[in-house]
Amino acid sequence: MNKRTPKIYREEFMLPKLANRETTQNWLKDGAKSVEALAADMVEERIGNYKLPELADFQEKILEKYIPQEWNAD
Known about the structure:
Elements: H1 4-12, H2 24-29, H3 35-48, H4 57-64
InterPro entries: MttB-like_sf, MTTB_MeTrfase
Family: Belongs to the trimethylamine methyltransferase family.
GO biological process, one term: methylation
């Protein structure tokens, strides 16, 4: 093996978060979640942790023309 490979392995090699690399026995023991269920959990987590970005005053003024007041999140 090239000496450089172990150094860059952790940075360059990507394991997909939805890929299950467990044995079938461990997967079943952990609840046997499907890829769809794992993806749904990830989406819910991202939506739950989302923070609206701060807008500059000029951006808010531009948006006021197009977004009805009743849609305002405040």
